[in-house]
Amino acid sequence: MKLINHTKISEDILERALLDAARSLRKRVNTSQVVVYVGLTRSWHSRGIAYSASKVLWDKKWRKVNGAFRIWLNPDKNKALVRAEDFFSTAQHEWGHISDYQSKKLLEWSQRKNGRRPLHDYRPEEKRADEYVKTARPKDQYADTILNLAIEIETQK
Ligand SMILES: [Zn+2]
Known about the structure:
Strand 4 and strand 5 form a beta hairpin. The chain has one domain: 3-Layer(aba) Sandwich (Collagenase (Catalytic Domain)), CATH 3.40.390. The protein has five helices and six strands; from the N terminus they run βαβββββαααα. Strands 1-2-6-3 form a four-stranded mixed β-sheet, with helices on one face. Strands 4-5 form a two-stranded antiparallel sheet. The model has no long low-confidence stretch (mean pLDDT 89). It is an alpha/beta fold. Helix 1 packs across helix 2, helix 1 packs antiparallel against helix 5 and helix 2 crosses helix 5. Helix content is 41%, strand content 18%.
């Protein structure tokens, strides 16, 4: 995984949260060569967006990638634990999309019904990613990771 961190949260802690989120899925996910951007948001929920990227130009060189996603963390100190859990679930959801890309479940993305794409939340790939989050290993197995992230959020300046 290549982490691009646009926050002041420790890279180690973000990296661990992201990798644990990938491992928690009962799905095959290859985290190597996946580019992950982490930014901050003031919106209530952590949000994310995944890309089925395969090649990026980096330091004047084309590099093979296994997908990419952006994820935004809400750094609200008063609700640090909730925000940390939310970030973790969002990461699980985005890794779910990456897993689909890697297993080439791409067709549905371009599939239209009656000439129209269904609304975002009703798209089959969204329902599937949500299902992966629901069937993931329980979050309490990652309590240390989530708590460490919460403490980072809480102690940000
Ligand atoms: Zn999604």
